[in-house]
Amino acid sequence: MQSRSSQTAAFLIIGAAALAAAPAFADITDDEKAAKRAKVCAQADERYAELFPGTKDDGTVIVKLYKYHFCPGDLTVKTGTTVRWVNVDKRTSHSVWLKESKINESERFFPEEQWEFSFQASGNYPYLCGPHWENEGMLGSVTVTE
Ligand SMILES: [Cu+2]
What is the pTM of this model? Predict the structure, then answer.
């Protein structure tokens, strides 16, 4: 039988590993972040093509959600454009929250689900994923032009 002290030691080690893992996104340089984003977003494009083959271009702009990234992270569209956020992850649910614009957070949406918003006024719309912005840095922005 394990002694109480070895159980405590094991618990502390797990705790330290969790702490070390949590803010990993903040410890890498901007160049490393950009390289990681490019890699993740290339995978997201492949996932989208697999999951939604032959999707017609109806003028809606697609943002994929994959591995704690919005792909693309920053987007510029014209007034009146609908943006569709599509979760192409395998397990993780996400949300889209245009918090600074005082627009309610979307429902959490699961792999292969989506959420849309039509931008009717020009401006800059930063947004975040409710469950992942803080620990994973899952953030994006839409710039809407006239
Ligand atoms: Cu998320």
Answer: 0.82
What is the domain-level CATH number for residue 36? 2.60.40.420
Low-confidence ranges of the chain (pLDDT < 70): 1-24
Distance 82 CA to ligand 1 centre (A): 20
Distance 128 CA to ligand 1 centre (A): 8
Instruction: Determine, yes or no, domain membership for 13.
Output: no
Q: Is 37:69 a contact under the CB 8 Å cutoff?
A: yes
**Residue 144, token pair as written in the block:** 């809407």
CA distance 56 to 4: 61
Distance from residue 68's CA to the centre of ligand 1 (Å): 5
* Residue 77, domain member (yes or no): yes
Is residue 61 one of the residues assigned to a domain?
yes
Task: Quote the mean pLDDT of the chain.
Answer: 88
96 C-alpha to ligand 1 centroid (Å): 8
Instruction: Report yes or no on 20 lying in a domain.
Output: no
CA 53 – ligand 1 centroid, Å: 24
* Å from CA of 93 to ligand 1 middle: 6
Who contacts 27 (Cβ-Cβ below 8 Å, separation ≥6)? none
Domain that holds residue 46: 29-145
State the total domains in the chain.
Answer: 1
